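hey so u asked for the seq, here:
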Amino acid sequence: MIKDLGRSEKERFYHYLIGFISENKIDRFNRTIEGRTRYLTIVMEDIFQPHNTSAVLRSCDCFGIQDVHIIENLHKYEVNPDVALGSSKWIDIYKYNKLENNSGDCFEKLKDRGYSIIAATPHKDGFTPESLPLENKIALIFGTELEGLSKTAINMADGFVSIPMYGFTESFNISVSAALLLRALIERLHHSTIQWQLPEEEKLDVQIQWAKNVIKRADLIEKDFLRKIKK
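ran it, structure tokens below
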């Protein structure tokens, strides 16, 4: 499999793939990959309105977020193509739905990867988008509009963030909240000295996946390449 190849062979495979892609698309890949990050990631916990989740995916792609984590305790999620507008093929989506406590499983895995779990909620004293520390990688967690975040999410959170509001309504819609927070945090990262961009090896892996996503029968092309290098 391609993921088991060394860097030089992956580079050869990517150059092989882009022979099937237009120059405009290749240029778009090269520009977009420079804005991609895993320093900041998004977690959605049991969102029961799929159009909201799909809208968040669209915002994640627009702001350069490569990874999105979806916890499915009670509600399964399927992409709404009319809302996501193809964004799901440019980002990596991880689902957690195999355990009784999928929330805890997700948060533990993210903590093991060095992320601080930051719960987005208007009901806890915490940081604003401008004051949230960025020294560590951040996983922003969003819950449902109806019930908010679970007790597991609140208890396992390393901190809380809320968006200042000046009206009567208690909170923003989840997709609006995600977009506002991402806009503020991405701008801060881009103007910082933090190494937020993807490492070169990860850039290559992402570009390979993007290329495979836009080529018809990319699976056959991959098999043909692997067959050739094994000769």
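The chain has nine helices and six strands. The chain has two domains: 35-195, 198-226.
lmk if thats what u needed
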